[in-house]
Design goal:
alpha+beta, two-stranded antiparallel ribbon, two-stranded antiparallel sheet, 5 helices, elongated
């Protein structure tokens, strides 16, 4: 996964409102807002991904979880490639240097020690030429994070109000 951290300003009131909701409700509101705000970046990344089989596009995913910090309302969102179905996405994203690929020791009929099958041939090693980077996640993030921050602020306000109503009822005005 790519690791980029951005801090936002002007959200002190929202953080205070999240804290007043309590750990469970505040965290629920924050996670939902994070998921909503990641959608434009996720959509752009999927649209820019090569789609020979469609596995790479489907394999670009987000994951949210409780973060570490001083506040109870800290969460982290990771966006990246599913490690089983789209593992090669990170190679495309960052590129690869020229390298040798060696066969694992095995016994193939009439070809002892050669386990790499390229077409109809069995080889003991190949020289990979490397690939240039095709940064679909990085470009999508850079192009869409201002929109994602706007969505985050709006959805966070909406979710705080919803969670406040659930917790205190409709007659309260504790939300941001």
């Amino acid at each position: 996964m790519l690791s980029t951290t951005y801090k936002t300003s002007g959200m002190k009131e929202l953080e205070k409102a999240l804290s007043e909701l309590g750990k469970q409700a505040g965290f629920k509101a924050l996670l939902g807002a994070l998921r909503d705000s990641s959608k434009p970046i996720l959509k752009a990344a999927r649209n820019s991904a090569p789609s020979k089989s469609g596995a790479l596009r489907k394999g670009i995913r987000t994951q949210t979880f409780r973060g570490k910090g001083k506040s109870d309302s800290v969460a982290t969102l990771h966006m990246g490639f599913h490690r089983k179905t789209a593992w090669y996405g990170q190679i495309l994203e960052r590129g690869a240097k020229k390298h040798a690929i060696k066969a694992k020791p095995t016994r193939v009929k009439n070809k002892p020690g050669a386990a790499l099958k390229i077409g109809d041939r069995y080889l003991s090693s190949v020289s990979h030429p490397g690939t240039s980077p095709k940064p679909m996640l990085t470009k999508s993030f850079q192009a869409n994070y201002p929109q994602a921050i706007k969505i985050l602020k709006q959805r966070l306000k909406e979710r705080i109000i919803t969670e406040t109503i659930k917790k205190y009822g409709k007659g309260t005005r504790k939300a941001a």
